[in-house]
Amino acid sequence: MVKKITLLITVAGLCACSSNGGSLDVKNSTQEVSSAPTKQNASEAILGGWAPVFFSGFDKKELDQIIDGINTGRIKRAVVSYPTRMQTLANNIRDYLQTNTGQKISMKSVELKDTEQVKYNLKQVIVTLYFN
After folding, report:
1. Does 91 lie in the same domain as 26?
2. Do 62 and 115 share a domain, yes or no?
3. Beta bridge partners of 28
4. Does 11 share its domain with 76?
5. What is the span of the domain harbouring residue 25?
């Protein structure tokens, strides 16, 4: 005979780049299952993700928000990607982030060619943020 066991299942959602600063929302609910119980704390759950931030110019306010995220631990790392013609802006963004975080910021030159189906915006630098 299979015993029905009520488990407490933790459902966690990650709101990256949201107005609440990317905080973690945790809700609890119960569900009946017919298997052995599994123990897991919400604090042990590993959640992460990534989000791109696009720069057409040097936006100090936006960069300061990224710096705050890195310095508080909400952002694990940042990578700067750029088309060749935007290298000066990419270098300025990287230098500003490195100076204010003490973290090594990786850079990646991306050479994209337009096709009939795809047209790229080659006037933007992309800072990809990786979350814990």
Report:
1. no
2. yes
3. 10
4. no
5. 1-46
Question: Terminal CA-to-CA distance of the chain, rounded, Å?
Answer: 42
Distance from C-alpha of 77 to C-alpha of 129, rounded to nearest angstrom? 6
The answer to whether residues 20 and 6 belong to one domain is yes
Question: Is the same domain home to 11 and 69?
Answer: no
Q: Which residue has the tokens 């299979």?
A: 2
Three-state SS at 95: helix
| Contact (Cβ atoms closer than 8 angstroms) between residue 5 and residue 37 | yes
- DSSP reduced 3-state for 117: coil
SS3 2: coil
Whole-number pLDDT of residue 41: 60
User: Is this model's pTM higher than 0.90 or not?
Assistant: no
* Beta carbons of 45 and 10 less than 8 angstroms apart: yes
Q: How far apart are CA 36 and CA 58, in angstroms?
A: 55
Contact 6, 30 (CB under 8 A): yes
81 vs 48, residue with greater confidence? 81
SS percent in the chain: helix, strand, coil, step 5: 25, 35, 40
